[in-house]
# Entry
Amino acid sequence: MIREKVAQAPAASGAAPTLLALRGVGKVFSNGVRALSDVNLTIREGDFLSLLGPSGCGKSTALRLIAGLSTPTSGVLDWRGGGSLDRSNIGFVFQEPTLLPWANVFDNVWLPLRLKGISRAKATPAITEMLARVHLTGFEDAVPRELSGGMKMRVSIARAMVTKPRVLLMDEPFAALDEITRFKLNNDLLELWQDERFNVVFVTHSVFESVFLSNRVVVMAARPGRVFDELAIEASYPRDEAFRTSPDYAALCRQASDVLVKAINSTAGAHHDGH
Amino acid sequence: MTAIDERVLELDPEEARRVRQERFERIGRWVLPLAIMILAIWLWDRICVWNAIPQYILPRPGVVLWTLYNDAGLLFSSLLVTLRITFLSLALAVVGGVGLAVLFAQSKWVEMSFFPFAIVLQVTPIVAIFPLINIYVNDQTTKLLLCAWIVAFFPILSNTTLGLNSVDRNLRDMFKLNGATRWQQLRYLRLPAAMPYFLGGVKIAGGLSLIGAVVAEFVAGTTGQSSGLASRIIEAGYRLNAPRLFAALFLISLTGILIFLVLSLISHLILRRWHESALKQER
# Structure
């Protein structure tokens, strides 16, 4: 909205075809917690969509529903072409690197292919290329504990992307990293996304991260978890360090921050009313 | 080592003290128990001499050593018999323990149904079960094996079961997302994750299988058909041959220590690259 939209900014116009539509999706856990309530959300081809919200707003639950790791209590997830998407088309990056501690970097990235019955020899080109993309060439033989937090997360991303999924789901992947590492991984993730043109749903509680990365920020509120508002971030890609320090970015962050504060206050209000 | 020594010169007093303390601890770990051991043996020898204790009640350490050398042929052939039972039963305990653990891991129902039986088997003293085994089993080796196995398999079963069930939840989700079959989940995730637990169980079972082999032979030995170290001890006891009794006892202890050390080494070699227990403390 502040910068001119350029041709390579994807899906900002809303003209892009729908990939996934969540219609009236709700989730109630057996302990009675309403994690999600009447969530309506459309993910379009080419989106880098962030789910932004305070803890307890159900953003991780939404991600698990999309991944098929959990089923909704009410409502439907409507994948383009109907039914559920083949799981091989989904890559998932957890908050923790979630690597096999006994296996080296190469074997960890090989794992999704291995589970599909692809031999080491056959998988090697894809693994080597993926490791180069996340700047881990030369670390094939290292085991996770020999790597820094940022490098472990790179392995985790390489593992999720090695099957060339159409959708990459990320659950606060960089929350545990220091700021310098997080910035670097943000840049590298954007680069990867622009080259490969997959869809990303990115769960975060960081305003700055969501604005920097995504073309759409969906702000969620808690108790019950719901979609509060949506912001289009119409700044052009590629976004780099210059964008991070630009006034445009600052203005967008303020805007997103204001919405987030409203979302949090709406919860606080509801909370007080409830008691 | 020399690198540390050179660094001492530039260190502040606190760090220098720490380096010194680490060096003392490194040496002390070996020297202290050794010194105490030598002192105890010396004291043992002196007590025998000062009180003029006859050899058939408490032999001097030198006599025990001499007996070990003199009766080497007899004692070591008996040791081989005991070792055979020990290792066979340990191998069977590994196969049985891991096999049952994998079976239990397939379903909570199986585990809930059968685990109590394993516990019953574990808590009932083997000496009390032996008369039954004696009735049902004819072959002497099979009897001993069965006894040693009953004693040794439980730690492997219980540890491996725990290990198979302590897989990181996210990793489990990751396998699910990638469409892993039950077999793939076991092969690539649960078995490797259980490895440290399993090795811990084997370390306990190694000692127990030796104890099981000796105890079983003790109970069976009274029927007088076996020739392992336990029957040598019983025999020596009847004849008031205390030096040989001590020599046999010494061999059993030594074997137990060696089994533990070998199993610890194997465990370390397997886990050294990734598991916290096998890593050097760097902080």
Notes: Chain B has a mean pLDDT of 88.
